[in-house]
Amino acid sequence: MTNFMLIPGMVSKLLPTDYVGFTFFIGCMAMMAASAFFFLSLNQFDKKWRVSVLVSGLITFIAAVHYFYMRDYWTAFQESPTFFRYVDWTLTVPLMCVEFYLILKVAGAKQSLMWKMIFLSLVMLVTGYAGETIDRPNAWLWGLISGIAYFVIVYEIWLGEASKIAQAAGGNVLSAHKILCWFVLVGWAIYPLGYMLGTDGWYTGILGKGSVDVAYNIADAINKIGFGLVIYNLAQQSQKD
């Protein structure tokens, strides 16, 4: 017996035992609420920080729309909505990287930093999608390329140019930058783990195989809303100074 039901002319119905579908629904609602919060708070900030808060709202809004479709896909087919998830990530993850540039822009960050971060995030995502869907026999190779791009991003924000600019800025900017760095190092770590659990490679004998949709959904909500709240708090604190 399956744990979903389709009702003609209506959206599919979530049953109480469908915990994965429940996390899709909660993720959608949480990120939609966060979007409303960020958008409605825009007028309280000056021009310097308004774009950063706006981008935070766009990130959660884009995710909320995709989660609406992912929930229905899951309840209809009981399959992980890989395509929708990667479309969401391809739009939102580069925007999350842009947030680093936006908060460091006040300290002199150049656009080259932003384009570098966007490029690395797209390499990470495109190669990850290739390994999960297009060329699964070589998933380990695509995963390796994706992982390298991820660790270059981690290096850039912790030790590279972005880190040096944040150190020079100090104060609220440095504090916010460090928190965002921890989101990338710890919060984003669930994604390569999920990739390895969902594909075959040398790592399968160590980790095994399994679905991580629940972990993905929770991590997405925490990472995207958390990013936005850090930016919101930075904007508020900077206005008081």
Write the layout of secondary structure elements.
Layout: E1 4-5, E2 13-14, H1 19-40, H2 47-77, H3 82-105, H4 111-134, H5 139-158, H6 161-169, H7 171-186, H8 190-198, H9 204-207, H10 213-240
Antiparallel strand pairs: 1-2
Helix pairs in contact: 1-2, 1-10, 2-3, 2-10, 3-4, 4-5, 6-7, 7-10
Characterize the structure shown.
The protein is mostly helical and 241 residues long. The chain has a single domain, classed as Rhopdopsin 7-helix transmembrane proteins (Up-down Bundle), CATH 1.20.1070.10. The protein contains ten helices and two strands, in the order E-E-H-H-H-H-H-H-H-H-H-H. The protein has helices at residues 19-40, 47-77, 82-105, 111-134, 139-158, 161-169, 171-186, 190-198, 204-207, 213-240; strands spanning 4-5, 13-14. It has a two-stranded antiparallel ribbon with strand order 1-2. The chain is globular, with a radius of gyration of 19 Å.
